[in-house]
């Protein structure tokens, strides 16, 4: 997959993120991750050296409070941002395209995993059918079916409860991203198709 930012573009984008007001380094990392729908999250080792360079160039100022550094645009930083407004607009378009490509790749990866899961389920179902006791030896197939239904229902309920709990925790921290929703939709659609194929 191609690099997210070409030479100098991340520097420009950091200036644009500071245009709305001072931010901590972690806030800038989170803002970038949000902008990419969670498909890209820069490391601290990527962001902080660039912020230090922007500070050296007089484009941002840094203030240290309680072990956290806050960065803010200087007048020179605002002037450079204004001069490069057209370049920033083009960069936004490039980012939008990059997000689409990365999201498509993630969805394809998930679909590939689900295809493997469906194949495994089909093989397991076939193996179970091959090992099953002949129908004549089963005293009450309807009762056995109900037992298996109850177990399947418990599995569905457990999955639902655990995912909801995880989503609630993530939401409390403001970390439910669009990629999470897309992944959940793809996984559930594929799982539904796989399970239905065993019920025919």
Automatic annotation (TrEMBL):
Pfam families: PadR. InterPro entries: Tscrpt_reg_PadR_N (IPR005149), WH-like_DNA-bd_sf (IPR036388), WH_DNA-bd_sf (IPR036390). Residues 14-83 form the Transcription regulator PadR N-terminal domain. Signal peptide: none annotated. SUPFAM superfamilies: Winged helix' DNA-binding domain. Coiled coil: none annotated. Gene3D superfamilies: Winged helix-like DNA-binding domain superfamily/Winged helix DNA-binding domain (1.10.10.10). This is Transcription regulator PadR N-terminal domain-containing protein. It comes from Cellulomonas composti. The lineage of its organism: Bacteria, Bacillati, Actinomycetota, Actinomycetes, Micrococcales.
């Amino acid at each position: 997959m191609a690099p997210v930012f070409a030479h100098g573009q991340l520097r420009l984008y950091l200036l644009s993120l500071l245009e709305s007001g001072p931010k901590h380094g972690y806030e800038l990392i989170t803002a970038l991750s949000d902008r990419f729908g969670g498909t890209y999250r820069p490391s601290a080792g990527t962001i902080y050296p660039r912020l230090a360079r922007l500070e050296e160039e007089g484009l941002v100022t840094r203030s240290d409070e309680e072990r956290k550094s806050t960065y803010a645009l200087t007048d020179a930083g605002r002037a450079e941002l204004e001069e490069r407004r057209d370049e920033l607009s083009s960069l936004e378009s490039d980012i939008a395209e990059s997000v689409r490509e990365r999201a498509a790749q993630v969805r394809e990866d998930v679909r590939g995993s689900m295809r493997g899961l469906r194949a495994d389920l089909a093989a397991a179902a076939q193996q179970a059918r091959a090992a099953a006791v002949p129908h004549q030896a089963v005293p009450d197939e309807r009762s056995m079916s109900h037992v298996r239904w109850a177990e399947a229902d418990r599995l569905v309920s457990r999955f639902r409860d655990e995912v909801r709990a995880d989503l609630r925790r993530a939401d409390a921290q403001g970390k439910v991203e669009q990629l999470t929703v897309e992944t959940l939709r793809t996984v559930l659609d594929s799982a539904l198709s796989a399970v239905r194929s065993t019920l025919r």
